Amino acid sequence: MTFETINRWRCFDGWQTVYAHPSEATGCRMEVAVYTPPQAETQACPVVYYLSGLTCTWENAVTKAGAQRYAADHGLILVFPDTSPRGDAVADAPDRYDLGKGAGFYLDATQDPWAEHYRMDDYVVRELPAVLEPVLPTADGRRSILGHSMGGHGALVLAMRNPDLYQAVSAFAPIVAPSQVDWGRKALTAYLGDDPTAWAAYDASALVRSRGWKADILVDQGEADAFLTSGLRPELFEAACAEAGVPLTLRRHVGYDHSYYFIASFMADHLRWHAERLRR
Amino acid sequence: MTFETINRWRCFDGWQTVYAHPSEATGCRMEVAVYTPPQAETQACPVVYYLSGLTCTWENAVTKAGAQRYAADHGLILVFPDTSPRGDAVADAPDRYDLGKGAGFYLDATQDPWAEHYRMDDYVVRELPAVLEPVLPTADGRRSILGHSMGGHGALVLAMRNPDLYQAVSAFAPIVAPSQVDWGRKALTAYLGDDPTAWAAYDASALVRSRGWKADILVDQGEADAFLTSGLRPELFEAACAEAGVPLTLRRHVGYDHSYYFIASFMADHLRWHAERLRR
Known about the structure:
Two copies of one chain form a homodimer. Chain A has one domain (4-278): Alpha/Beta hydrolase fold, catalytic domain (Rossmann fold, 3-Layer(aba) Sandwich). The longest helix of chain A has 19 residues, at 260-278. In chain A, helix 2 runs parallel beside helix 9 and helix 6 (204-210) packs parallel to helix 8. In chain A, strand 2 (14-23) and strand 3 (28-36) form a beta hairpin. By secondary structure, chain A is α/β, with parallel strands linked by helices. Chain A contains nine helices and nine strands. The first copy, chain A, has helices spanning 58-64, 67-74, 120-132, 150-161, 182-192, 204-210, 228-232, 234-244, 260-278, and strands at 4-11, 14-23, 28-36, 45-51, 77-81, 139-148, 169-172, 217-222, 248-253. Chains A and B meet through strand 1 and helix 9 of A and strand 1 and helix 9 of B.
């Protein structure tokens, strides 16, 4: 598997790199950004996957979240995958921001025309650890995952579906119950078909009830988030975690919205939280 | 003077605001971004001006420099002006990135067609402190300035031209000798005419020789900066400061380039440095 370095910047005494590589999972060329902290040159470091939200590429979080500083503080490698397959051959819904390119929802689609390339679950969970981590300096096999909005959904869902793979999970303003909100129902119907029983495999609130989670979960949510009551509804996940006996720290922040200003403000807490749990 | 709030985000327990206002100095509508730290709600805070480089608006530094966190740490108000006048009525050189809109060079132009609107010196030094600071919560009259590239040039030049106004100055990869480098000579010729004696008033290396500076200066420079030997030439400022007896801390960072990844990596040091000097 070939990783082509398409850009590379010195950053907080480590390196922010952007790779392009052919992906077997998605059947297209993918870009993925990686931050390697200064510690990675000499010692084993865990890998934290950050999944971005609707309309994003790796670039939003890499340029705006301020995560590199904290990764350098704690000796964490950060991996920023794209949010969907890309390229002219990939199906799209160009009039919609919440379906198609930029909106892969971190699942393996079963419905046409999406099933051919929209395999972001396979890509993030199986392909990237298998092919990317061996070429990173001193990735040590420990792994955790976090994300924002659709990426928060992805982080929660992929962690609960793969508890042996990830030691910790957290999220910013996640879509916690896609089966019960408008943009989730539309996406799940398109990608997985109109039988809601298929949706439960990619619904964090359903998954925590059916599978639980082996540790605690951190979620930050802005109270001024425009999607709070329509598309996010953290109270649904709070109730599901309580029912499942999974310890959830849900912090509601007055005045904060859905933007990267919100994410940047609390990134330090998240990466410290991951570092503590990855060291255990 | 009316400041219209065009956007506002909660950020590190303070507020990142973007204002639009009619400017008398530039004769057009200007946008300016302001970060007010949590301390500003209850106590007097100094104001740090950040001047951006070629092609930028307020947005580049506000979204990518990670400065808000350190401003919140130290209780600093940050002001991010635009890099030129804007609007359809404003002269431009659309085929050039280093002249016209996005390239005001923080001077008061004397040559047509630039003299009518290109008065960024007047705007940053006289207008903004006079009209913006009174509407900010508890700006306390202490003031310092920093910037990047063309904005580093602006910070050094405006500080040395106005030592009573600014208590401290620092720069990332500044254009320190515009009279001696290609993009500087082209801009100074266009804005100020072809007599090089007029350029000395906006050339940091000439100014530190003629006026000196009352305190120390911090400059960070990446060794992998593509503009290092063509457009920046920090050794010219180093020699001028040595000659003038002005203490310069010039840090050369191996592997760092001209990007915001470089700026973000050292922003903590700069704002700590400003906070220490503003408290004196």
